[in-house]
Design brief:
The chain contains 6 helices and no strands. It is an all-alpha fold.
Length: about 230
């Protein structure tokens, strides 16, 4: 038997939860798009695309605030329990991670603009586009793992972080060689190192999201516990 007045609040809660999920997915897609555009601007040396990335940062900032407000309202007004509670808290945390992804995309775009002003360009090493591809895949998979409450996928994303770290180490060695061989390449080499570092941080943020996915699925905290990520 349904008590009078109980169905509507319950339905309203799940409608609002669905909207929260929808906005989180949209924010994730926009964050992925900005990373892709920033790296494309770098590879094609396209100043207009770099400026588009910088201008898009305001949208991600606004989305973070919106998702945080939606989440806080659900926590305050509905007092959710168990899985729903973990999802809302996770969504608020993830919106912050996605906003930071946008910041890293802006950093890459700014490095692109700096490189365009350099008289001694350095050739693009293939590790950087590969890092971008892997980091974007990690980001997409991490969100899928969270939305689907898929702990196994979340753990797989955590494991993939080591591959991006290895690529970053490779970029460091390549750029160091350039700088030692020709001091004129020091400034552009440092800019490419910054790009690599920002992509590594995007992969780290994807790992944060995947850890939240494992917590949502299994109610188990694996942050800073490498033996439990497998």
């Amino acid at each position: 038997m349904t008590l009078p007045g109980t169905t509507r609040p319950f339905r309203h809660f799940h409608d609002e939860l669905a909207k929260l999920k929808e906005r989180l997915l949209y924010m994730s897609r926009r964050a992925e798009d900005t990373i892709e555009l920033a790296v494309d601007a770098l590879i094609t040396r396209d100043k207009n695309k770099a400026h588009m990335v910088i201008e898009s940062d305001a949208e991600l900032n606004a989305l973070e605030i919106e998702i945080e407000q939606r989440g806080i309202e659900l926590l305050a007004l509905q007092q959710p329990m168990a899985t729903d509670l973990r999802f809302i808290i996770g969504a608020i945390k993830i919106s912050n991670d996605l906003e930071r992804v946008g910041d890293h995309a802006v950093n890459i775009a700014e490095s692109c603009l700096s490189l365009l002003d350099q008289p001694e360009p350095v050739g693009m090493c293939p590790e950087i586009p590969e890092m971008a591809r892997r980091a974007r895949k990690m980001l997409g998979d991490a969100l899928d793992a969270f939305i689907r409450s898929d702990g196994a996928l979340g753990r797989a994303v955590c494991s993939a972080d080591d591959e991006v770290d290895a690529l970053h180490d490779s970029v460091f060695r390549i750029m160091l060689t350039h700088m030692m061989e020709d001091p004129r390449t020091i400034t552009p080499s440092l800019e490419l190192l910054l790009v690599s570092r920002n992509l590594e941080r995007v992969a780290d943020l994807a790992t944060n999201i995947s850890e939240d996915a494992v917590y949502l699925a299994e109610a188990k905290l694996i942050k800073h516990r490498s033996e439990e990520r497998r």
